[in-house]
Amino acid sequence: MRHAILRFLIPGLLLLGWLASAPQVQAQAGSAQAIIDLVNQIRTANGLPALIVDPILMATAQATAETMASSGICAHIGNVSGRVAAAGYGGGATVFATENISCGYNRTAEQVVYQDWADASHMLPMTNANYVHVGAGVVQASDGRTYYVLHAAYFAGAASGYTPRAPATGATGASTPQIIIPVQTVTPQADGSMIHKVQPGQSAWSIAIAYGVKIADLIALNRLAPTPILWAGQDLIVRPSFTPTLSPTPTRTPTLTPTPTPRPWLPASVLNDPDQRHNLGWGLLIISALGLAVVIGSSLRGRK
Questions:
Q1: What is the pLDDT at residue 16?
Q2: 10 Å Cβ neighbour count for 87?
Q3: Residue 136 sits in the same domain as residue 48
Q4: What transmembrane ranges does the database entry give (predicted)?
Q5: Domain identity same for 185 and 155
Q6: Does residue 188 sit in the same domain as residue 132?
Q7: What does the angle CA 137 – CA 107 – CA 17 come to, to the nearest 5 degrees?
Q8: How many domains does the chain have?
């Protein structure tokens, strides 16, 4: 009986050990070209022409994926039309672009396109006939998380002919170069103000998110256009300086000292009674006459 148990136990333990030591099979991250191929398959299935791969859009999509991977944040940077136009797409024409992103572990290109981008807004590159060009970027971070970005775009006059070309290097004056630097918040100054210096690739949207302020407030503080395009090196007021509130100086109210009302030397009953006033008048007249007689008498005696 003991040998029978060992006969089944030993192979079972060996099998469990092999399963534990066997390498785990993980889904391989899809490439940028795989993303584009799947998008074009859906477009052609909808009766639309395949999107044309544009080197500028490839560069902007890849730069966006690298920015997200370096910051560890899976979020749109914002103003994708302005960013691809600043990189040279469209040659100065009015640009219309859309951006799809997806981030996750062990995500294949099929899962990204067919699952993550299955809603109407993400399906625009596959269902909207206006889009002509496409670019994609894929970056796998050190923690194994993969960042996917798709840029689809067209511009006014695209039907007249546009030759995809590599993005220009060394160009100056571009509002958003290919290199996109994540927003690093600054320390408030002594007066409480916060001034952010715009770095390549940063948008008003991403700066507002980083500082936790409303983009409308950022636009108002800096008197920007409703859809602002920022320039590298531009100073943005994120928070104005504190304006001290002056306390009003209290005004002293003068204290009025009451002036005593003079009291009449005669009772009011005498002043108000005509008969008594008459008698008073005669009395005063007699007193005055007597006083005058005394003065005259004293004067006559002095002459003797």
A1: 46
A2: 25
A3: yes
A4: 280-300
A5: no
A6: no
A7: 135
A8: 2
- Assess whether 152 and 40 both reside in one domain: yes
Q: Of 12, 162, 137, 156, whose CA–CA distance to 68 is shortest?
A: 137
Candidates 145, 133, 108; CA nearest to 31 is 108
209: in domain: yes
CB 207 within 8 A of CB 224: no
Q: Which amino acid appears at position 148 of this protein?
A: Y
Interatomic CA distance for residues 99 and 68, integer angstroms: 13
Residue 116 lies in a domain: yes
Q: Which residues pair with 153 in a beta bridge?
A: 97, 133
Distance between CA 182 and CA 237 in Å, rounded? Answer: 18
190 and 131 share a domain?
no
Q: In this structure, are 132 and 74 located in the same domain? A: yes
Per-residue pLDDT of the chain (304 residues; tens, 9 = 90+): 555 544 554 545 444 454 444 443 344 457 899 999 999 999 999 999 999 999 999 999 999 998 888 888 888 888 899 889 888 898 888 999 999 999 999 989 999 999 999 999 899 999 999 999 999 999 999 899 999 999 999 998 654 455 666 554 433 333 333 345 677 889 999 998 999 998 876 777 778 878 888 878 888 999 887 767 777 788 999 999 886 666 666 777 777 777 776 666 556 665 666 777 677 777 778 888 888 887 787 777 766 5
Q: Answer whether 41's CB lies under 8 Å from 34's CB.
A: no
What does DSSP say about strands 145-155 and 235-239: parallel, antiparallel, or unpaired?
unpaired
Helix (H) or strand (E) holding 137: strand 133-140
Instruction: Report the CATH number at residue 51.
Output: 3.40.33.10
Say how far apart CA 198 and CA 190 lie, in whole Å: 21
